[in-house]
């Protein structure tokens, strides 16, 4: 086996462990320290869906959707594209629910909390918008039929750049979000005395960074790039005949 | 001229304008809203050196040092390496001063504020450590004589990856720092009502992201990569004879 691929496999498994740990830690954080999950009748606790679903959807699924071209290198391209779009759709749905719960937790609070005032909200929403525009552009350019091959080739570097940009911006927004929640909600004892809830907040932030760094590395290292397999062309030709 | 280089020049000028605007806005923020600059006799205001020098050193100079290989593409390699190390040394000195002033502002406060409890402090210090290790490794691998060429070639992708990783982590840390300062210090009127100090905080955060996104794009886009010039080899040979 190509020695680069052995390194890749080790790092890929590490990335998954890191991502799953990150989700478990967020679930533990909100479960142990902030009252778990609730519906609209308890807006302060309903908020907790926000970090949980953003972590699962907008960080873990987003990262994994980027990585499927590397992790499943012997699967044919068309299946990978559909899976990429499918996982991203899952990420988008969880992200929209996560946005709804945070707006609920502001609007239904007594008194209501203003929306969209923090840097976290500005950059987080920017990341969602970048992600959504990327989805539409990616669908038109690479999944829908009809676009000429030279346009597809020209768009690919931009698709990769803005995909990774949105992912890194999502992580930066999550770091600001964890910071906000820790300052607002870790009061007795205070965040500044590093109680368990504060240490856990910081460890979650570190996991976000490690997961993000691994995903970007695996996605950009040239020796890990997927090489076209014979089925890609063969099936492309037969399917274009069949369509 | 290569059409890619025309795009490059436009984006390079935009990056500089964005970077300078970012510094001016941080200076305005601390000058207009938080009392300007002071020494150890006024720890609360001495703090203000921290965002100012981190923005100039750990973001603007760090980014520009990365970019000199692209911006000054007709300068010979050895001069660029020395300039790269020199600008990074300037960035490091400003960063160390910025760290000293934040520790002062905690330790000399009455009562003292605990150090190193926030996610901002954990990730910010990690970015400084990554930067410092990179500096030592880069010096040994690419400036000091003696390392064999095949080691240099093997280390270059890691040097580039960890250089960009440290830069992006510095920006993420700055975003958390702005978030902290806005929550702690924008009280009357509150940050949640988006007063001028709050809007300015958010705009500074947006500028950090735009500057970072431009630097990473300019540094990673393959068509902007510097090509070796004849002097690189000629002067390398003559200098190795002269040394």
UniProtKB/TrEMBL annotation, chains A, B:
Highest taxon, organism lineage: Eukaryota
Localization (cell): Membrane
Residues annotated as domain Cytochrome b561: 14-220
InterPro entries, alphabetized: CYB561/CYBRD1-like (IPR043205), Cyt_b561/ferric_Rdtase_TM (IPR006593)
Co-factor(s): heme b
Protein topology in the membrane: Multi-pass membrane protein
Transmembrane regions: 12-32, 52-72, 84-103, 123-146, 158-179, 199-219
Protein name in the entry: Uncharacterized protein, isoform D
Record lineage: Eukaryota, Metazoa, Ecdysozoa, Arthropoda, Hexapoda
């Amino acid at each position: 086996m190509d020695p680069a691929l052995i390194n890749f496999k080790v790092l890929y498994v590490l990335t998954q462990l890191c991502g799953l740990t990150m989700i478990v830690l967020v679930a533990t954080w909100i479960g142990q320290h902030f009252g778990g999950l609730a519906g609209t009748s308890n807006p302060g606790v309903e908020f907790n869906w926000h970090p949980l679903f953003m972590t699962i959807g907008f960080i873990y699924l987003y990262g994994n959707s980027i990585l499927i071209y590397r992790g499943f290198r012997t699967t044919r391209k068309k299946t990978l594209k559909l899976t990429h779009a499918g996982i991203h759709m899952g990420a988008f749905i969880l992200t929209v629910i996560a946005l709804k719960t945070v707006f609920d937790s502001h609007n239904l609070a007594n008194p209501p909390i203003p929306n969209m005032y923090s840097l976290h909200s500005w950059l987080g929403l920017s990341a969602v918008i970048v992600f959504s525009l990327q989805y539409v552009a990616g669908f038109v350019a690479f999944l829908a039929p009809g676009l000429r091959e030279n346009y597809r080739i020209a768009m690919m570097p931009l698709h990769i750049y803005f995909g990774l940009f949105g992912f890194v911006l999502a992580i930066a927004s999550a770091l600001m979000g964890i910071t906000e929640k820790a300052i607002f909600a870790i009061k007795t004892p205070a965040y500044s005395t590093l109680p368990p809830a504060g240490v856990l907040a910081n460890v979650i932030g570190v996991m976000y960074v490690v997961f993000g760094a691994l995903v970007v590395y695996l996605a950009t290292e040239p020796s890990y790039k997927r090489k076209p397999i014979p089925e890609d062309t063969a099936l492309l030709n037969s399917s274009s005949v069949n369509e």
